[in-house]
Write the structure tokens for this entry.
Amino acid sequence: MARNKIMSAEAAARLIPDGATVGTTGGGGGLLEADTLMGAVETRFLTTRSPRNLTIVHPLGLGDRDYRGLNHFAHEGLVKRVIGGHWVWSPRMQQLARDEKIEAYVLPGGVIMQLWREIAAKRPGLHTHVGLGTFVDPRQDGGKMNRRATEDVVELVRADGRDLLRYKPFQVDVAILRGSVADPDGNISFDQEGATLDGLALAMAAHNCGGKVLVQVRRVVDHGELPPRSVRIPGALVDAVVVEPNQPLSHEVFDDPSLTGEARGPDVPAAAPAFNARIAIARRAAEELHDDAVINYGFGIPDAVAKIVAQRGDSSRYYQTIEHGTYGGTLLDGTSFGYARNPAAMIDAPSQFDFYNGGGLDIAFLGMGELDRFGHVNVSKLGGVTVGPGGFIDIAQNARKVVFCGTFEAKGVVLSTGDGRLTIRHHGEVRKLVHQVDQITFSGTQANLQGQEVVYITERAVFRLTPEGLVLSEVAPGIDVKADILDRMAFTPLAVDNARVMDSRHFRDIDRKG
């Protein structure tokens, strides 16, 4: 007899019991976000007060900073614990964590994705070097982000004479996933999605724990119509299929085959980004590239580096990757960060992190919140707010060269540039170069032990990491080293007198006449 696993979102939501551990996947901006299913869980809770006391586990950010994605779960009583890789897309959940209404944990995004596979195989957790020396190391915070988080979810172990972290396995009762096409037997295709992420790994984990696998798709085809190589999650793993015909590709785009790899769209010439101090940072960062480098661009100023490379027509000189599993193409930015137009290849994200963890990345361009005298960087907890690193730790700890890109100060900074010089009209209220970061998301100490090359680029100064400390290697033209750099830092860098002047071309508005 032919199976039929298709059911309503409301019926699928009723499969989630009180106290369940729910794993889900997706990326900010709507990538693989099963929003209809999540909304049905929220509606059920608001109507019946069930399910209650859920543990939610998600590797990357989910939501729209308003009501979608993880925001659906942000109700006191609905959620007891959250183990998240990235939180900024759900300010409601951030507030619950800050108010001590839930147990809040943060683990590296790639670690969570790879942990699904260990759970599925009934192995004793994930043993890895990723996270050593950072806030997820139990010698620091162990990934605990507030006072209510008291359980140890990671431990330090020794193997072959070296330190490792063991991320402990746990029961996965429910997986909430999204694909694009299904058949009634539950076979799932991702062919019309911008990535596959960790969908298969999570489905296997939930199924092998005796849990339920719930998948939202845009449409259903008849038995036998899905090509076997298009099926990324076999029907044997799936318990419920929910059809949402209005499921968009992202929060901004309903459908675009050039973002899913189904068809190649026109290669639109990249427009030159509007010039400002952030572009000066990106221009200087691009100097760190070399031919045939395998690279990753982070969110924010780093994706401006990608735009500069594309605008110059140099993309073919490098191998561009995204932690979501995508290679090549033209990166989208803003809320669509994580999508690439006309990608060359798309693999699953846990395998991408395997590649990263083994040293496959030559260069990573990443953002920078706080920086301290040890070369530690904080991007995961700022101003007391749980942010989370996403894949930042997995990437930063393993790339051969790490190029951090960030402004020197924040809040109220007024700069003047465009004529080949940089002038500080008004200093910022928030210092970012501090004596000690609030939380270590990247460990300069660990980087020195591993022999990584690390560069920190701001609009007014460039620093390099050495075993002796941070060296001031470059200053922007027009900058007063004492007044604009040293007096605005909480520590004194090395080799101040030997710093060279940054190339004035980085500070010129190429559209300015004269």
Q: What stands out?
A: The two ends are 78 Å apart (CA to CA). The domain at 277-507 is CATH 3.40.1080.10 (Glutaconate Coenzyme A-transferase).
